[in-house]
């Protein structure tokens, strides 16, 4: 999936007409979800500030990019089901998960380093681009999360993007309804998958 994402990013960044339009539009900033890092490259190319709306990035990249302390000794890693009161072996397991996820992310996000070099003409890593964000709007809420250190440009907005569920319309066709729902749910990712 990451290879496909980088190829789509390459196509977007090499589209001269689109990039010219973006430059001439003189946007004040870029508001994005940094999971697929093409937006950061566009923001740097346009020399505009970037604002991230994110629940979290793989391997705690969001906390590494902001230079926020993220010690595995008391901050449980995602999918470990540990609490902030870990025993020795849980802390050791948390450390191993942290190290292995860091290596995995280096592998997954390394193709973007080539895109950064090619389109921005600078030797920078994805982590460096992420660190240039003006504001991180974090979809965390300390009512549900464990305490952790944060940086001044990290704003916690909790469930601001959550809404109550709505009943599906009775007018939906009975045949192909599941396909329709999948298309609606994943419509934002259709750009990354060939039809």
UniProtKB/TrEMBL annotation:
The keyword Glycosyltransferase applies. Belongs to the UDP-glycosyltransferase family. Keywords: Glycosyltransferase, Membrane, Transferase, Transmembrane, Transmembrane helix. It holds the Pfam family UDPGT. This is UDP-glucuronosyltransferase 1-1. It is found in: Membrane. One of its GO terms (molecular function) is UDP-glycosyltransferase activity. Its main location: membrane. One of its GO terms (cellular component) is membrane. InterPro entries: UDP-glycosyltransferase (IPR050271), UDP_glucos_trans (IPR002213). The keyword Ion transport does not apply. It is a single-pass membrane protein. The chain crosses the membrane at residues 175-193.
